[in-house]
Amino acid sequence: MNTEFITEFLEIFHDPESSQDFLEQAANQFYQTASATSYIEGQQVLSKVAPSIETLSDPVRASYVALLCGALLEQGFDPDPVIKPLLSRLQTMTADVQTWLQICLEHNPSIRGEEGIEYDLLEETESSMAETQPALAAQNTAFDTLWRPAVTLCSLSKDARLTAQPLRTQLELLQDFTVGGGWLSKILAVLDDEPILVLEPSTKLGFAARISGISDNFQLHTLLMDIFPNPTGQPRVTQNAADTAWARGAQAGEGSVLGYWNLYDWRAASAVQAQQLATEINRDYWVWGEGIPSDIPVRNGYRIILLGEPAYQRSWANSRMFGHLRPEFTDLTVLSTEDVQDWLEQLSAV
Hints:
Number of strands: 10
Number of domains: 2
Distance between the termini: 64 Å
Order of helices and strands: HHHHHHEEHHHHHEEHHEEHEEEEH
Structural class: alpha+beta
């Protein structure tokens, strides 16, 4: 892709007189050309185009450029040039959307109903307020586009997730009102390089590791079924389900996944010693599949999971929440029988 083409594309987006049709035509041509370039050329394109996400005065156009960059990232280009400009724009936009929603709620408190947000009423209020608050309305419109490439970026880059962490609290305040706030909150709740300890009391097997990129506990359970030591040597999960969970296959795989264990947090260790781990009495200590790894309590610096017999047969969809988010287990150390027993005794003595 030649420099003149990129320059012309940027001039069109920076020109306030450019029509919507002209913008769409330029964007389509840009994407078709950029997606057909070599890796080196694609990286050069991102380095030259990504800064406009931050510098464009029109937030809607900025979000459109971000969407184009996000589409290139999905093809395997390095996300580093996109991190600063996209997250800088997201920071500004998040604050403005908060202000916008506050104004809308003050204008019409009925938006927040007894059973949750009245979305039809919110939409009506936003339409009526757009004339008096055009700048904030534009930010709100742009946010509906920007969150998608932001999720793509954060799915592909640990550095992006770390950089965006200060925005998590603000985005959680938006999640009841906007789809984007919800998805961004979920991706920023993902743990990276988090110490985890997994023990199976009945076999005295276990390992310690660091986990990254796991979006929910159903996915965590599937991954544990794939990698946890098995004395029988038999697979606990199908290859298709393993590929889906490890982001080696499609985001949605075939069929469903049948759980192998009940997962408990460390507080169930006393029940282990009393040989009651699989009973209903321990429901308060279950690690629920609908939850996320950050819900698992920390003890002695680890998120600790105890594996017990399933209280009932449970299954879940063979899918992962984020298509481009790759889970990792690093620094994995298999524990000796003695180490597992020592851990169980320590935890049950608390």
